Amino acid sequence: METQLKGVRTANTAVQPAVRPKRKSVNKFVTISLFLAPAIIVYVFYVLYPIFSTLLYSFYKWDGVGAGTYVGLQNYVNLLKDNVFWTSLTNNTWVILTSIFVQIPLGLIMALMLLAPIRGIRLFSGVYFFPFLISTVAVGLLWVLMLDPLNGIINRLVSVFGFENVEWLSQSHTAMFAVLLVIVWQFSPFYMILFKAAIVGIPEELYEAAEIDGANAFTKFFRITLPLLMPTIVSSSILAIVGSLKAFDIFYVMTGGGPNHGTELLGTYMFKQAFVNFNMGYASAIAFVMFFLAMIVTILIQALDFYRKKKGAYA
C-alpha cells in the first residue's frame, strides 16, 4: 500500500512541473495582451476603421447626409477621366521631388554646418529650426503678405534690382514655384534635426582611423558619414513622400489650389469635392488613392533598402 502511495506522489510531482510552464506562458500572454490592448484599440478605431470606411464610401454616390447610392467602381472610373485629378497628382509629384531632392539634401547640409568646427555656428541652430516651429497656417499667411504684388517685401527687393513686380501667387507658372519655396523654407529644418542626431551617433573612432590612413574631409564624408546615414535617409524619404502626398494646409492657405488648378493637390481637391461639392463618395475615392499611393511607395522604398542591406551583407 505504501509503495502504491509513493508511486502516486512521484507521478504527481512529475506532472506538476509540466503544468506550471503552461500556466506561466498563459499568464504571460494575458499580461502582454492587457498592455497591448489600449494601443490596439486606438489603432483599430483611429487607423484601420477609417481606412476601410473610406474604401467602402468610395463605392457610393453620397452627399454625406442622406442614404448613398451604390455605384461600384464608377468613382474610380471618373477619376481616370478627370483632368483636375491628374493635374493634382502631377503637382503632388512635384512636391515629392522637391522634398526628396531639395529638402533632404538641404537638411543634411544644414546639419553638417551646425557640426562644423566653426566658432559661433551653433547659435544658428535655433535660427535654422525656427521656421519649423511656426504653425503652417501662420507661415502661409506670412508668405502671402511677403509675396503681395504691390506691397510685399519680395517684390520690393525685386524692384531694387530693376525688375518689374511679379504676381507670384496669381500666375500658374510662378504660383507652384512660390509655394514649393515656402515648403522648403519651413520643413528643411526638420530633416536637419534628424541628420544632426544621426551624425552625432557616429563613433568618433571611425573618423580618427580614417585620418590616420590619410583620408580628407570628402573621403570621410562619402566613405563613413553618408553610408552610415542611409537608414536616416530612407526614413526621411518615407516621411517626405507620405507628407507630400498628404500636403494640404500650406497650399490651401496660400493659393486655394489656384490659379486655374495650377497648385491643386490631391488633398485640396479631395477637400473641395467633400465639403464644397458635397460629393463624399468621389472624395473618398481620392482619399483612398492617396493612401494606396503612399503605401505602395513606402513598400518600394523599404524593399529597396532591404535589398541594399542584403547585398551589402553578402558583398
From TrEMBL:
The compartments listed are: Cell membrane
Residues covered by the ABC transmembrane type-1 domain: 89-301
What protein name applies here? Sugar ABC transporter permease
Native organism is Fictibacillus terranigra
Q: Does the keyword RNA-binding apply?
A: no
In terms of SUPFAM superfamilies, this protein maps to: MetI-like
Q: Does the keyword Transmembrane apply?
A: yes
Which family is this protein grouped under?
Belongs to the binding-protein-dependent transport system permease family.
Keyword annotations for this protein, in alphabetical order, are: Cell membrane, Membrane, Transmembrane, Transmembrane helix, Transport
The topology of this chain with respect to the membrane is: Multi-pass membrane protein
**Which residue ranges does UniProt annotate as crossing the membrane?**
29-52, 94-115, 127-146, 175-194, 228-254, 274-301
